[in-house]
Amino acid sequence: MTEHRHDESKLERIIRKIKRCLALSKSSNETEAATAMRQAQALMREYRLTEIDVHLSDVGEVESESSRPKRRPTWDRQLGAIVGEAFSVRSFSQRQWCKSTRRVVERELYVGVNPAPQIAMYAYEALLTKLTIARREYVSRVRKGEQRSHYSPETAGDHFALAWVSAVYEKIHLLVPRGEEDPAIGMQSTGRDLLAVEAQDQALIEQFLSGREIGKARKTREVELDLNAHIAGLLAGERVDLNPGLATGGEAQLQLA
What we know:
The protein is an alpha+beta fold. It folds into two domains: 2-56, no CATH class; 60-248, no CATH class. It has eight helices and four strands; from the N terminus they run αααββαββαααα. The chain has helices at residues 2-24, 30-46, 51-56, 74-86, 116-143, 153-175, 187-209, 227-239; strands at 59-63, 68-69, 90-98, 103-113. Strands 1, 2, 3 and 4 form a four-stranded antiparallel β-sheet that branches. A hairpin with a 4-residue loop joins strand 3 (90-98) and strand 4 (103-113). Helix 4 runs antiparallel to helix 5 and helix 6 (153-175) packs parallel to helix 8 (227-239). The protein starts with a helix and ends in an 18-residue tail after the last helix.
């Protein structure tokens, strides 16, 4: 086991060195660029690595701290999906055995090019906390008769949460910085560059996932929504103020307002 760890550590160092060489190979100094490319190619030949292998090392996966027994509710999975889409990472529900609780639990899993999965998970868990509190308060009001519903309090709470998620969808997308907003770079070229980078990232993610078995997402049953809960959820979601720190993984210790 220790020897295996040493091997992985050595490989990581080699990959970092190859990345530095590949970066230098784009230098405007032709001699420096050619030397760096030769070094990168020599290292790749020595360790039997391809450029795809090197780039794949940038792809990572992160699972949520929070988990649920058996299956996550639809509103939780939808929140995970819209956050993943906003940060250009793939969103999955991962079922696994939890040793501490001795039962199968389900968690959110993000796969993407680092550091996007880590930032997406920070945003998802911050929003999940906010939504869980809002839903709990709404369910309590239904139980007390302060909110009218033809459904059970828990079902009305689910409808409230689904509407809340749909209300914050656009807010999350607006929060994520896009290349074309950079005033130092031209709008046209940045747009093309952004699309190229996103396409490359998605190709790497697909390559990373190619050897895995991925279950198909279950179809969501269409249900007649509780209109009162839906409106309340939309209004509550509209009132959520998303701080820019949410899109950077809280680097400046900013939180949801």
